[in-house]
Amino acid sequence: MLRAKTLEIVKSTVPVLEQHGKEITTHFYKMMLGNHPELLNIFNHANQKQGRQQTALANAVYAAAAHIDNLEAIMPTVIQIAHKHRSLGIKPEHYPIVGKYLLMAIKDVLGDAATDEIIEAWREAYQAIADVFISVEADMYRQAEQQEGGWADFRNFVVDKKVKESDVITSFYLKPEDGKAIASFLPGQYISVKVSIPGDQYTHIRQYSLSDSPGKDYYRISVKREDGSADKQAGVVSTFLHNHVQEGDILRISAPAGDFVLNMEKETPVVLLSGGVGLTPMISMLNTIVEKQPGREVTFIHAAINSKVHAMREHVARLAAEREHVRSFVCYSNPTDEDRKSGNFDKEGFVDLEWLQTIVPSPQADFYFCGPVPFMRSIYHALKQWGVAEEAIHFEFFGPKGEL
Questions:
Q1: Burial profile 269-294: b = 16 or more Cβ within 10 angstroms, e = fewer
Q2: Which residues pair with 173 in a beta bridge?
Q3: Is 137 assigned a catalytic role?
Q4: Domain Globin, which positions (predicted)?
């Protein structure tokens, strides 16, 4: 139980954290990874370079400070982060390291304003917050290992099949090397893939949504190859998977994780919206509804640049043709001449509220969406403008949590 004085001091620092949070967390990561480079085996290097991890941590620290007297209020965020931590292999021994450098960063950035009293209050508060995470994650590790077909940490899987889905997306069908059962999962969840790339000192871990329904003897991930450009670095892991990993190769995989999942206890209509490779968890949800809830109405809306980069188009079209409760719509922002000739899409441009209202019968549905942040931001604001209830809006960020 934190002392009243500690609560008072920590809450009083909220405006300062809001103002200097990104600066503090940027300095924190630089110091911590400089002194503990072994943690680069866990942290996503690309998110560090792009500043996404620093922003996500700053937001989490700010939220914890604002609710330090009622941590129950941030439990949804704690659970979401804990899922990622468990799938990455974050352990209790990592928390004291994080705490040490976070306090040092607060002191360095705030200077004389960070008095001994403030630092001590934050030390107590950090320990309380860390204890919550450690407890939640311990339960998740236990569940992951003790469930039927489950395991701890990472397990060897063989690439059973490698299937090209579009010019930029390839699916990998993964079966356990030991031939034993694999854990089931909830549609929308992801696995972590750990790879050692020749010439790289540290391992790389990336999280990929499972792109098929549960209950199979394999996991499927569908990976977009992130090619570099003048303003964007190429994806180290995605290019390695596409260019070097072949059928028969071994990948190290975590047990499924994640709290962005289809609610199968409901029978309400479902609208699945995806942009680009954001369709992967949506395909898992669609396949699951078709297999487990065949009478449930589902509208599948996918946005892509054009047909060349549109994965699994034929699969979704076939389901829509065969199932009266499944409808599918396609939006291309830059259709090819062939797309225009064949008329194989429903809208040119971007998904907007005006179009949504013509293809979705009612806002009384559950909306799930995933894709690039600008796409998700646009969808979120369109749904709010339409009056869709907050509890009916569900979305997933690829990577550190952002703001819509």
A1: bbbbbbbbbbbbbbbbbbbbbbeebe
A2: 161, 220
A3: yes
A4: 1-138
Burial of 104 (0-12, 13-18, 19+ CB in 10 A): middle
- Residue 261 one-letter amino acid: V
Task: Determine the Cα–Cα distance for residues 196 and 352; give it in Å rounded to an integer.
Answer: 42
Catalytic (active site) residue 126: no
Q: Which residue has the higher pLDDT, 289 or 227?
A: 289
pLDDT at residue 342, rounded to an integer: 94
What's the average model confidence in pLDDT over 193-206?
92
What is the per-residue burial (b if ≥16 Cβ within 10 Å, else e) of 43-54?
bbbbebeeebbb
Check 101, 126, 137, 165 and give the catalytic one: 137
Q: Which of 95, 126, 141, 173 is catalytic?
A: 95
Q: Give mean pLDDT, residues 240-269.
A: 96
Average pLDDT, the chain: 91
Do 347 and 334 meet the contact criterion of CB atoms below 8 Å apart? no
- Are 221 and 171 in contact by the 8 Å Cβ rule? The answer is yes
DSSP bridge pairs for 219:
174
Task: Give the integer Cα–Cα distance in Å for 275 and 305.
Answer: 9
- For residue 373, the SS3 value is helix
Q: Look at strands 366-370 and 393-396 and give their pairing.
A: parallel
Residue 204: Cβ-neighbour burial (10 angstroms; 0-12, 13-18, 19+) = buried
Helix, strand, coil shares of the chain, percent, nearest 5, are: 50, 20, 35
> Any idea which of 21-25, 43-47, 199-203, 394-398 has the lowest mean pLDDT?
43-47
Angle at which helices 52-66 and 116-146 pack, to 10 degrees?
Answer: 110
Name the DSSP letter for residue 255.
P
How many Å from the N-terminal Cα to the C-terminal Cα in the chain? 34
